[in-house]
Design brief:
Strand 3 and strand 4 (about 40-45) form a beta hairpin. Helix content is about 5%, strand content about 40%. The chain has one domain (about 5-125): SH3 type barrels. The protein has a 5-stranded antiparallel sheet, with no helix packed on it. The radius of gyration is 15 Å and the shape is globular. The protein is mostly beta strands.
Length: about 130
């Protein structure tokens, strides 16, 4: 099976990626977590799990997602706070609300919300 690799500073190691890994969501998409009550806008995508082993092992085994799927970095929000989340593809759904995300860092990365998704700032796309 063909594979590629990338270095993850977050994981502190080179990550091996199967070439069949395909992201269902893209940067700027607004999504909701399947099990937990939060939503957010995607600002980065890893083709497979690329975080630390400690982070992965901290997820209860009965709900721990598979490693070989895309993982998304979100500017996330719930009723209490805003934060950055790292979520597996299997745990994300398109956001039915489709409204803007009220995260304090959204304007640093995105230009505007077009009613369904955000547009990345032009200065960050080069």
């Amino acid at each position: 099976m063909e594979r590629s690799q990338f270095f993850s500073a977050q994981a502190g190691r080179t990550i091996d990626v199967p070439c069949h890994a395909k992201a269902r969501f893209g940067i700027g998409d607004v999504v909701r977590h399947r099990m937990f009550d939060f939503r957010g806008v995607i600002f980065d995508v890893d083709p497979v799990f690329a975080n630390s082993e400690e982070w992965y092992e901290s997820i209860p085994e009965d709900i721990r997602p598979k490693r070989e799927q895309p993982y998304y970095h979100l500017l996330a929000e719930n009723d209490d706070s805003s934060y950055v989340a790292y979520v597996s593809q299997q745990n994300l759904l398109p956001d039915a609300e489709s409204g803007p995300v009220d995260h304090p860092n959204v304007e640093e990365l995105f230009e505007r919300f077009d009613g369904s998704r955000y547009r990345m700032r032009r200065s960050l796309t080069h």
